[in-house]
Design goal:
single chain; alpha/beta; 7-stranded parallel beta sheet; 12% strand
Length: 333
């Protein structure tokens, strides 16, 4: 990497860069904290660091894992993670915790729920508050994923808050989206939004050891349901597998399907095309977020927004007129 690239970094960030590239977990944690900071100077430093690291990213398998509350996402990820690191894989888990809509606080309890995995030097677990971002995906999760890849992690797992239509956002930032379900699939099939099922590349029936007959019946139900939906790829039919995280059953078959998915999409050219499309979509998301931020920080908007909002609420001015007036302030920038 040319030395000129490093010249834009502060001395402390050059040290951070070297430690991160050496795979030090503490350095990765510090880099993610820098990326997540809302301070303008930290944002600038994070952008410079990402510029240098970008050529070192993109070499992992990115997995998104979602499911209804109580399905055992954290238990499955820990069991699967331990199985992976025992096989020589370095794993990063970016677990997005729900933020309170009132206080903004979050539980950040994934390290507690993944105690064994958290102690392994080959694994990195980072809980981050969702902070109200769409789909329960923290705003900076994509950048944290790039940092983990630059640090040499082969597999990056994004664990999402739960299941909902907006949860499909996570599918737009990973290679493979995995939906965990319980054996009693009958009610779940009625409750789950069509959108989340359509973006699933693989469905796992967890806790299959509790009632094998119910798990087998759930597989049949899901296979029938998926026949009515369009798959994410014309070259891939989403498998429905049964696993038991507690008994470590089905992990090898699951991993084999993950690798088969990657190989299939690489052979068809879809894998690279998908990542390119995700990068462009990410850029536009950042543009939208940036424009919203600039709008709210504009002095005229800050001065008039409250008054115009009150006039709209009282019916004394239409929302269209108010919006046009507020947007017109941006022309004075």
């Amino acid at each position: 990497m040319p030395e000129a690239t490093h010249s834009s970094l502060l001395p402390e960030d050059r040290v951070l860069l070297e430690k991160l590239l050496a795979g030090e977990r503490r350095a990765l944690a510090k880099a993610i904290t820098l990326v997540e900071s809302s301070r303008a100077d930290h944002r600038h430093r994070a952008n410079e660091l990402l510029k240098v690291l970008l050529p070192r990213t993109g070499n992992s398998i990115r997995l998104g894992i979602s499911g209804v509350p109580g399905v055992g996402k954290s238990t499955f990820i820990e069991t699967f993670g331990l199985w992976l690191v025992e096989g020589g894989v370095r794993l990063a888990v970016l677990a997005v915790d729900p933020s309170s809509s009132i206080s903004g606080g979050s539980i950040l309890g994934d390290k507690t729920r993944m105690e064994l995995l958290a102690t392994r030097p080959e694994a990195f677990i980072r809980p981050s508050p969702s902070a109200g971002s769409l789909g329960g995906v923290a705003e900076k999760t994509r950048e944290a994923m790039l940092l983990a890849e630059a640090a040499g992690y082969n597999v990056v797992v994004v664990e999402t808050v739960g299941v909902g239509q907006s949860e499909t956002t996570v599918a737009e930032m990973v290679d493979m989206f995995i939906l965990l379900q319980l054996p009693n699939a009958g009610d779940d099939l009625q409750a789950i939004k069509k959108g989340i099922v359509e973006v699933a590349d693989l469905i796992l029936i967890n806790k299959a050891d509790i009632n094998p007959q119910a798990a087998a019946f759930a597989c049949t139900q899901w296979k029938n349901a998926l026949k009515m939906l369009r798959p994410t790829s014309p070259h891939w039919t989403p498998p429905i597998l049964t696993v038991s995280a507690v008994k470590r059953e089905g992990l090898e078959v699951f991993w084999r399907e993950v690798l088969a998915f990657k190989s299939t999409l690489e052979a068809s050219g879809e894998f690279a095309a998908k990542r390119k499309a995700q990068a462009i979509r990410w850029m536009w998301n950042l543009i939208d977020a940036g424009l919203r931020h600039r709008f709210h920080e504009h002095p005229l908007v800050r001065a008039e927004l409250s008054k115009l909002s009150e006039l709209v609420a009282e019916g004394r001015i239409s929302p269209t007129v108010a919006a046009q007036q507020l947007l017109g302030f941006l022309q004075h920038s």
